[in-house]
What does this fold into?
Amino acid sequence: MEKSNNTVFTPGKIGSLVLRNRTIRTGAFEGMTPDGIPSAALVEHHRQVAAGGVGLTTVAYCSTSLDGLTFPHQMHIRDEILPGLEKLTHAVHAEGAAASLQIGHAGYFASRAAMGQKPIGASKVFNLYTLTYPRPMTTEDFGRLTDDFVKAALAAKQVGFDAIELHFGHGYLLNQFLSPYTNRRKDKWGGSLENRLRFPLEIVRQVRKAVGPDFGLLAKTNLEDGFKRGLQLEEAIEVSKALEAEGVDALVLSGGFVSKTPFYMMRGELPIKEMARNEKKFFRRMGLKLFGRLLVQKYHFEEMFFLEAAKEVRRAVKLPLVLLGGIRSLANMQQAMQAGFDFVALGRPLILEPDLINKMAAGETSASLCEPCNLCVAQMEAGGIRCVHPQLGKPD
Ligand SMILES: Cc1cc2nc3c(=O)[nH]c(=O)nc-3n(C[C@H](O)[C@H](O)[C@H](O)COP(=O)(O)O)c2cc1C
It folds into this structure.
């Protein structure tokens, strides 16, 4: 399993897809899709990341349908977004990188403002994030959502994406099925892990059947949800094995649950004040201002914060694994390769320096300058993500 230190800048395979190196720009919602339509800024953002050296860039969250959005200004699969996405894949390919589209459904924390109705979910569990109870999914919903995932995957393939990343983590709908906290169903979709896996695996099966064996199929999964009654590592390992058996090409290992532990996946500072300032909805803004620090937990940042948990998955499966979370230096990347991971994914460092990978490959730098201030997170709702760290970024 040991790999040489030079592996980072050598090609790697995800299914039939060959990436020029082992680095990936992870899905980080760009906030560059006003009215849910990809903008020129989104295309330029990913072009820059591609020109900056990554092997694969991931366009963040695209919902399979209107009722799966977390922000009203997010994309959901429909004809209007396809020309913009096609421009994006062309721009990324012209810079020598591959492109992936992150596809998911927000389930019980979907934005009511975006869809104008109660969110759907696995079970009727109160959601503090949007202050609602979801409507538990019916037989009809299962069929429609599976079809929507298939349509989304086919649309991504049609506009030139090399791969898709199905969102099985961060508390999104498929994670809500896996997690015992949100899935309290008594039918064949709930209870045992086998039952909780049924719907997520059905989606993988149908998507794979539709896109064919050669299209890249990644899944972003949780190593742990980050709270007591959520999915724990032991079951996450079983989920990884099931996804491997179902034909997923690679797993992107993450953690955290947007509606419960939103900063578990990022760690570092809490930009509550900045998020409240940018939040357009009055009550949520007031809630964030008054109770933000009580509701949102802070997690200590350290480099490679998912490494130890991810190693447990590495021991259990053979498919390519992507390590993410606090990858900040070439030494971190090399350590990941030596520990048997096939790829590393970076989020915040590439928001600050889109050309970090080229700089590392050229020996101009060995580490990112990024500090986990998380001020970029608040920019999702303020015109698009960028680094606004007072010293490092480009504040207004
Ligand atoms: C501004 C921002 C937006 C994010 N949006 C998403 C998202 O839409 N989907 C997702 O899976 N992860 C999202 N994430 C989490 C990242 O994919 C990644 O897991 C996290 O930032 C840790 O990696 P890093 O330490 O390299 O930044 C986001 C992160 C940031 C900073």
About this structure: Residues 5-381 form a domain with the TIM Barrel fold (CATH 3.20.20.70). The chain has a mean pLDDT of 93.
